[in-house]
Design a protein that fits this description.
Layout (H helix, E strand, L loop, with lengths): L1 H27 L22 E8 L3 H16 L3 E3 L6 E10 L9 E10 L7 E10 L4 H18 L6
Parallel strand pairs: 1-2, 1-3
Antiparallel strand pairs: 3-4, 4-5
Length: 163
């Protein structure tokens, strides 16, 4: 009795799988005789609107490079800012960094940030603000967030330059 019940169960399972496969096959083939397949309209993605910013870093230390990369990453993810090319009207965040101690570069770095505004890469930029700081492996994320916040304040203060 158990063998018969097991065979019936297996037979039902095989039949149900066969009907599922045949149903999937019919779904995959569109019926072109009765109605044409609808064409999907691809709408262009709206370009991200925000304050155009260019981050420029010079220096050969690890912490300064990390700070510049974290800052660019934050600007890229933000809805307030757009990373721009050097040929566009933008706020420039110029970061200059050096190791705090040449013999022990893993301790920390000193950095200077100068915010400028330029109409394009061929025009002399206008000085807006500057700041000095020290970064270590512990505060790189916080320093990048602080510089992004200050960039927002600087751009807000000089927003008339974008009109």
């Amino acid at each position: 009795m158990r063998k018969v019940f097991g065979l019936i169960l297996v037979l039902l399972l095989v039949l149900s799988l066969g009907s599922i496969v045949s149903a999937e096959e019919t779904k995959a083939v569109p019926d072109t005789k009765t109605k044409p397949a609808p064409v999907e309209k691809v709408e262009p993605v709206a370009e991200k609107q925000g304050i155009p910013v260019v981050v420029v870093h010079s220096g050969d230390d690890v912490f300064g490079g990390t700070l510049a990369l974290k800052l660019k990453e934050s600007f890229r993810k933000s809805v307030l800012f757009t990373l721009a090319g050097k040929d566009t009207r933008s706020v420039r965040v110029n970061i200059e960094s050096r190791s705090e101690f040449k013999d022990r570069p893993e301790i920390g770095s000193v950095y200077s940030v100068v915010w400028t505004f330029a109409e394009s890469g061929e025009v002399v930029p206008f000085y807006l603000k500057q700041e000095l700081g020290i970064i270590t492996w512990r505060n790189v994320e916080n320093a990048a967030a602080g510089l992004m916040n200050k960039t927002d304040k600087v751009a807000g203060e000089y927003k008339y330059l974008f009109d």
